[in-house]
Amino acid sequence: MTTTSHSPYQAEHQRATATPELFWQQQAAKLNWYKTPHQILQQQDKHHYHWFSDGVLNTAYLALDSHIEQGRGEQTALIYDSPVSNSQQRFTYRELRDAVAQFAGVLKALGVGKGDRVVIYMPMIPQAAIAMLAVARLGAVHSVVFGGFSAHELALRIDDAQPKVVVSASCGIEISKLIAYKPLLDDAIVKAQHKPDYCVIYQRPQLLASMQSGRDLDWQQAVSKAEPAGCVPVKATDPLYILYTSGTTGKPKGVVRDNGGHAVALNYSMQAVYNAKPGDVFWAASDVGWVVGHSYIVYGPLIAGCTSVLYEGKPVFTPDAGAFWRVCAQYKVNILFAAPTAFRAIRKEDPDAALQQYDLSALRAIFVAGERLDPATYQWVHQKLGKPVIDHWWQTETGWPIAANPAGLELMNAKPGSSTVPVPGFNVHILNDSGKVLRTNEQGYIALKLPLPPGCLTTIWGNDERFVAGYLETFDGYYASGDGGYIDDDGYLFVMGRTDDVINVAGHRLSTGEMEQIVANHPAVAECCVIGIHEPIKGQQPLALLLIKNGITVDETILEAELVAMVREEIGALACFKKAIIVKRLPKTRSGKILRKLLRQIADAAQYSIPSTIDDPASVAEIAQLMADRGLINQP
Ligand code: COA
Ligand code: AMP
Questions:
Q1: CB 258 near ligand 1, within 6 Å
Q2: Cys-Cys crosslink for 51: which of 148, 156, 261, 332, Cβ 3.0 to 4.6 Å?
């Protein structure tokens, strides 16, 4: 091993593995609970564990009020930077707490109480974070829906979460394009079976929304009349939020996060993984609609007493490829977190990264996640910035990093392509199909030995069977991550990609199964298969292979355009669904299963062998030729 058994990382990982209850009790003691937990870990049954079950706390109190009580009230808690609306705003901890308490008062007056759900469908404005924290303050449960999702996707989430109230804004701004959110919300409510009692709309001056009398309230007006609400104590095991993520089917999964484990894990990660201290400026260039935004724009930095940057813009075009460096210099960002795709986009626009005009001396490290950090991008960022570039691997389900270079414990030598080592608390194994632990350097399924540490999902909202069947029954005693990879002789983890039908487009997790359902609805399509293929900036993009119904003649270009429109309408523009090809046959096993892995290998120009179970071997060469003709095969 590169680390010796006496290395700080190694020692801490061993402690967390050997005596998890003691280890996490010590971490829990760092927080300001209303009632400190004594029951640290309880096993309910073979699959369910509970952390800190007798603890009582409030997450918004830990994020705001507790810091004010400790004298941090005048420190900046949140910086809003929006090149797209040409505005910047700072909130001290006291100002943010007051805004949150005031908005919590609005929600409380609308009947929102402990356990009630509130859906938040917002662009990247401070009111999104304020709404999340206000819901947490009331002990209610938020479910943030990424602003790029369509009305259909929003309706699915409204039906599943059954919110009393939806909080939204009149519009988002995508570079220079205004996205009217309110009509999408109205449409979603028409489509959904469940009807929220109220919608609270933040009116942005760029585009005002029309309001439905009796149902819709104007944020600013409601806040001006509200009484501030206090923090409601909740049990550690009470849910803080539901965050929907893509699975292998069309129906998104509502990942449930509890209050206690979440606060303890995030606080630990801020110190052990990110090496962040109170007062540090932390910038996660993500969106509050994703787990990164929940954990490291809102809760993690605030619980840890940092200053968090909330950025409404892109890495490029707002206004140029220097946007990230401008923000880092202007606010003296200490820790930057972004997706590899953002750096690939910057490199494409400005390969020489003209950094001289920016003072990046405050920046200590750059963390990347959301998709695999390809070695070329790692080298580029590292060379340009001359700072540690830390790839770390995690998922919506875990809520915090499973593997990382633990900067707060020990900065280890980086290996390009590896997310370094399992974070203390995570017990990572590589398994084969039958659940046997593989040796080092052997590639297989990445699985986490139970119990998972605090902060990970506790169930799927309203569908515990899906939680058990989807994650816990594949390998006995393990959580199946859905990712494949290997561990090398030095104990470094290499995450190579999903082993299921989930793809990652520009750091956004999407289900090819869901796209297949939409494409299959086209009247000309008899059968289809959607796979993720390589895309130089976004990492992956979807490609549909289509079998056309007998007797129908179609123009491939027109059909492709129609399918693109259907996927945009049903999922949203963020799916980046742009390519579809008509094939004569799809390679299938004799039992009729489409050989998706084989198709992915063809598109990746990877080595493949044609399985003996294939029904129609000639289909493989045919499809390879079609993909090559359309320039869809990866040119490494
Ligand atoms: N609201 C509405 N629409 C949105 C949206 C939002 N919040 N986010 C994206 N979209 C739309 C875009 O407008 C675009 O629509 P278009 O096809 O009509 O132009 C489409 O979804 C695709 O958007 P995006 O993936 O942002 O592509 P892009 O080409 O505009 O930008 C990047 C490319 C690489 C700059 C951009 O994808 C990026 O910044 N990625 C990083 C994402 C990230 O941080 N992920 C981390 C999660 S941890
Ligand atoms: P999400 O739930 O949207 O955060 O997406 C999680 C998925 O993104 C993981 O299951 C991985 O497939 C991928 N992912 C996230 N971070 C990394 C990383 N550092 N390296 C490789 N894949 C990653």
A1: no
A2: 261
